[in-house]
Amino acid sequence: MSRTWFITGTSSGFGRELTGQLLERGDRVAATARRPESLDDLASRHGDRLWRAPLDVTDTTALRETVDRAFAELGRIDVVVSNAGYGLFGAPEELGDEQIDRQIATNLTASIQLARAATPHLRRQGGGRYIQIASVGGQIAFPAMSLYHATKWGVEGFWESSAPELAPFGIDVTIVEPGIARTNFGGGAVLGEALPEYADGPSGHLRRVLSGELPPLPAPGDPAKMAAAIIASADQPHPPLRLTLGSDAYEQATAALRDRLDALEAGRDLAFSTDADDVVPALATTSR
Fold first, then answer.
1. What band does 217 get if pLDDT is binned at 50, 70 and 90?
2. What superfamily does domain 4-247 belong to in CATH?
3. Which residues are catalytic?
4. Is residue 271 helix, strand or coil?
5. Measuring CA to CA, how many Å separate 266 from each of 44, 184, 261, 272?
6. Is the predicted pLDDT of residue 16 greater than 80, yes or no?
7. What is the CA radius of gyration of the chain?
8. Cβ-Cβ contacts under 8 Å for 5 (sequence gap 6 or more)
């Protein structure tokens, strides 16, 4: 059955890959990007099944107007994909105020505002799907990526809280957590000011990787396969809340969660010891 999708950030990366695959299989796509002319080749092949609009997702007014116009002109949108994003790298001290504000506005606030703009439409039409392109970086954290991780962890919390609120309206949510894929993500990265104090640490090392001075990070993920898996998840009657893609994502998330559980267990006795004295004793002796 043909569906209609709304996708942000379609000029490159997963947004572009999703748009191409969906059009090839016969779906309609409302594609937004700062440079919608980058989709001219797809428009020439697929005609009016590709709806395009210019959009900087950090412009909340424009975001709402674009969402409203897409629903009005297309009649129904089945799947809303929040994909626009980029990486800001460097130690916190190296990052500028404007860089921090834009990273949060693009990766986190825009996802929240997209949900706020689209939810009334999805409710009125009886349901739909949200797909949030996040990152395994919402489950793990590396040095020199603090602001990027802050936005991805924020997205995880927003959607985990929102998903049960939306479920009664027939609106499902899937958070996609890819590892490093063979996209141009690194090419679109923004670096903070290089301070000499950090040159020999993780921030300096990452700069040398991104500049080509050091070998690139392993990128096992195939964007085409990942996009196909994302599309397949939307075809499931009960999609997963999280979709982990890439062997590196699986291994890194598994190790991080196990370490976190071990640390939590190590602090169990201290946690229970801080309960008030009138707490029912049986609760404090719950079997492990």
1. confident
2. NAD(P)-binding Rossmann-like Domain (3.40.50.720)
3. 148
4. helix
5. 60, 41, 9, 12
6. yes
7. 21
8. 18, 22, 27, 28, 29, 30, 77, 78, 79, 80, 81
Domain boundaries, the chain: 4-247
DSSP assignment of 114-157, as one string? Answer: HHHHHHHHHHHHT-EEEEEE--GGGT---TT-HHHHHHHHHHHH
Neighbours of 255 (CB within 10 A): 11
Q: In this predicted structure, what is the pLDDT of residue 233?
A: 97
Compute the half-sphere exposure of residue 42: CA atoms within 13 Å on the CB side of its CA.
28
Mean pLDDT, rounded, of the chain: 94
pLDDT at 284: 47
Give the pLDDT of residue 186: 63
Phi first, then psi, for residue 100 (nearest 5°) are -65, -45
Q: Report pTM.
A: 0.93
